[in-house]
Write a structure and sequence with these properties.
- This protein is 33% helix and 28% strand.
- It has a single domain, classed as 3-Layer(aba) Sandwich (Aminopeptidase), CATH 3.40.630.30.
- It is built from three helices and five strands, in the order E-H-H-E-E-E-H-E.
- By secondary structure, it is α+β, with helices and mostly antiparallel strands.
- A five-stranded mixed sheet has the order 1-2-3-4-5.
Length: 107
C-alpha cells in the first residue's frame, strides 16, 4: 500500500469512500465529488492510501496559521479496517505537520 497526496482525479473515489466509511458525518461536502474537488482545489491537505486497485483510506491535515495542526477526517474503507491503515495515515500526517514546523494534534 502507498500513501499519496490527494489529487482532483481522486475526488469521485474519495466521495464514494466517505459514503462507505463515514456515515452520518455532518459536513455533507465530503460525500460529493464536487465538494471534494472544491476542497482540494482550495488547498485542503489530504492524503490517500491505495492498494493496487482502489483507495482504502484518507485523512486530512489542517495547515493554517496556528502553531498546531489537526489530523482529521481519517476514513478507512470497511474492508480494510483493523489493518493499520488509520495508524499509517495518522503517522504520515504527523510527520508532515512536524516538517511544516507544526505541533500535530488529533481530536
Amino acid at each position: 500500500m502507498e500513501i499519496l497526496q490527494a489529487q482532483i482525479n481522486h475526488a469521485e473515489e474519495l466521495a464514494s469512500l466517505a459514503n462507505e466509511a463515514f456515515p452520518g458525518y455532518p459536513f455533507r461536502y465530503v460525500f460529493s465529488k464536487e465538494g471534494v474537488e472544491t476542497a482540494i482545489q482550495n488547498g485542503e491537505y489530504r492524503v490517500v492510501m491505495t492498494d493496487d486497485e482502489r483507495l482504502v483510506g484518507s485523512a486530512v491535515l489542517g495547515l493554517d496559521d496556528s502553531p498546531m495542526s489537526e489530523v482529521k477526517r481519517v476514513m478507512v474503507h470497511p474492508d480494510y479496517r483493523s489493518n493499520g491503515v488509520a495508524s499509517k495515515l495518522t503517522s504520515h500526517l504527523c510527520q508532515v505537520a512536524k516538517q511544516n514546523q507544526k505541533i500535530p494534534t488529533q481530536k
